[in-house]
């Protein structure tokens, strides 16, 4: 059975129809590209990002206009977390930069650490890139669902580690020069001091 290899980018783009949140968190399992450099087995492959829990796709002002980096970077900034970026090192490091491997169609445990909870929910998406130099696009990401069919995972109160299960699509393999990117999307519900248009 072929396994699917995963690189996790974090699109902690806190968007919502009501308000935007300035929440903080990181995808722990599989480890996201900004976090992976903190793990001993990756220390010589991916640099450490000391702000890996604060990706917000450029902040409220950028995301309010519907613009955001695909993997959590500012729309008009350096795309450090996308494939080919400082933390997206698969094109140069190959399998050494893979955070996890899963079987196609498997139900997997995903683990998120929230360090500043602003309520809301999580969603996850999967993008298969066929060649080392391919880049993520919004159209590439396929929404994942939990075993019960729900796509949104409601965030309980508190700052903690949260584990949720999602089902991977069957028939998607990511071997050789291809790789899959898992994206965590956090939609927050509240941000004290900011109104629904992103104004303080």
UniProtKB/TrEMBL annotation:
InterPro entries: Cellulose/chitin-bd_N (IPR004302), Starch-active_LPMO (IPR052282). Coiled coil: none annotated. Its cofactor is Cu(2+). Residues 24-188 form the Chitin-binding type-4 domain. GO terms for molecular function: metal ion binding. Keywords: Copper, Disulfide bond, Glycoprotein, Metal-binding. PANTHER family: BINDING PROTEIN, PUTATIVE (AFU_ORTHOLOGUE AFUA_1G14430)-RELATED, CHITIN-BINDING TYPE-4 DOMAIN-CONTAINING PROTEIN-RELATED. Belongs to the polysaccharide monooxygenase AA13 family. This is Chitin-binding type-4 domain-containing protein.
């Amino acid at each position: 059975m072929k396994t699917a290899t995963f690189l996790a980018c974090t699109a902690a783009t806190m968007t919502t129809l009501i308000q935007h949140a300035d929440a903080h968190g990181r995808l722990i399992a599989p480890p996201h590209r900004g976090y992976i450099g903190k793990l001993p087995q990756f220390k010589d492959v991916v640099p450490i990002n000391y702000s890996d829990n604060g990706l917000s796709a450029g902040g409220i002002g950028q995301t309010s206009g519907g613009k955001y980096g695909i993997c959590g970077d500012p729309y008009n900034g350096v795309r450090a977390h996308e494939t080919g970026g400082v933390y997206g090192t698969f094109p140069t490091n190959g399998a050494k930069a893979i955070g996890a491997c899963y079987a196609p169609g498997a139900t997997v445990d995903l683990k998120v650490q929230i360090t500043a909870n602003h309520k809301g929910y999580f969603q996850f998406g999967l993008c298969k890139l066929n060649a080392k130099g391919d880049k993520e696009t919004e159209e590439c990401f396929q929404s994942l669902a939990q075993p019960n069919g729900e796509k949104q995972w409601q965030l309980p109160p508190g700052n903690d580690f949260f584990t949720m299960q999602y089902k991977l699509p069957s028939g998607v393999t990511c071997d050789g020069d291809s790789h899959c990117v898992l994206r965590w999307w956090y939609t927050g519900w509240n941000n004290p001091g900011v109104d629904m248009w992103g104004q303080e």
